């Protein structure tokens, strides 16, 4: 395969450190495999002294396959693996570990469930809570943090420390290690045993790392040790695609590589072979708004191309209808469903979109696990209230919601499998204030009896006080109540079109069956539209890409408060944009769940290169017509319009963000 000059320079690199900046679609896998081939054929390096590391087992396998094909089936000897596989190999030789010493995921979850239960820490969303704690523990270990200086985001610091210590004690007791221990123990071993370190330094004389922007501190510290004294370290990655800071990835490591290795060389793979010129220009215009990055001038191999199609819709329903209409249009034009993807910021977004795809029989597959909205504990609570309103009197239904919100009704008052309100009143006959609460609950359920599901949810939220309960729970769990309200809003919206509980329950059943079917048919129906989170889309490519819900609070996410968070959100949007080869649609909505929404700032940044927008530039505003950019008294850029012989000034940033400028006329 023909290579360009930048690729050739990287491929021919022999000794010493080199940083290869590889933009999207720039052929980084080709460079790594060809450089490995050159080391063997051109420079006579023993294949067994070469180590190629990537982040996933699948990527390592694919890299090895490509290398073996390149070598004509003679690629034996080179070590391909993930960080964890390589570091566990080192531990195996030192401590005689086997696979039996690695904790399984089901074991880990069981340990945490037992720990939480033992601490009598009552939580509604146990699965989500445990997942959050596991991520935090991973971060603490990966950064080698002092536990005393860590502040938990999932619970109180005291509770977090107790859970952490209990988990560590359980691992040691069972003689088990987790994936993070592999890294920490390997680092400790190599720093404490110079003799063992020397053995592995002689073994891995040439180290090549793919996706280097995703490396964390302990991984980097180990690699630096292994690379000594020759420092034949060949790292490939793109700082603009570093999107795993929540897992401990530190883009700063890549940015500071040449400080750690002043003698190191740097090369930019500056040709994008994947996307059209229009898409590359938009992506570049977006990402250059980040300040902490390597400056790059990426050009597209494929000149021209379709304009990026950007549209704001009045509401979610219109957006989803347009997505499906365009998918069917592309399919009729000859693009397979499998070459199209819908990308979204979080995996809780596409419920209504899935409904629309099902309505038009568009085959789809979910590359990420899409949680079933109706399995969420909030949905379970709401549906339970409805079942009670319909006349069901099972004891377990009452136990589910009787203290959501707090009514302080004891479990002990429900003696029988079927609950009678008279029996509950009899239990509290000497407590007037409790009788009032029981009567109010009975009244609420009677009132809900003939409501539509949508109206009932509204009554549960406001009339019964469920929103107050969620606010209290959010404070207890140290999470934003808006996240819980999002689930409630999504649930209420899904019920909007149904007149009776039975109709809505039937829809829920159909939806759940479809999700199960999709999960079972994932491998069978390959010609399907991909539904992927922005995180999950990394490394993938499609002829047509739809980015949906490009709104402030969604992308960038409302949790992005610090500048570092915002820059990561922008990188994530950049990753999503650069998945498109030919057609890119970016859609936003003006209203979601009766709440006004603002178009994402990233949309404006896609369209306008701020460096070109200087004083004197003429622009066309959708309402006021032609204007000119000027600097105001504070030096801020604004647009001035001549309107009825009066000058009107509008904020330039606001106009960009809300797409009020006719970009094509600039």
Write a concise keyword list for the protein shown above:
alpha/beta; globular; 6-stranded parallel beta sheet; 26 helices; about 675 residues; single chain
What does this protein look like?
The two termini are 40 Å apart. The radius of gyration is 29 Å and the shape is globular. The strands form 5 sheets. The chain has a 6-stranded parallel sheet. The protein has a 6-stranded parallel sheet with strand order 9-14-13-10-12-11, covered by helices on one side. The protein has a 4-stranded antiparallel sheet with strand order 17-18-19-20. Helices cover 46% and strands 15% of the residues. The longest helix has 20 residues, at 501-520. The model has no long low-confidence stretch (mean pLDDT 88). A hairpin with a 5-residue loop joins strand 18 and strand 19 (637-643). By secondary structure, it is α/β, with parallel strands linked by helices.
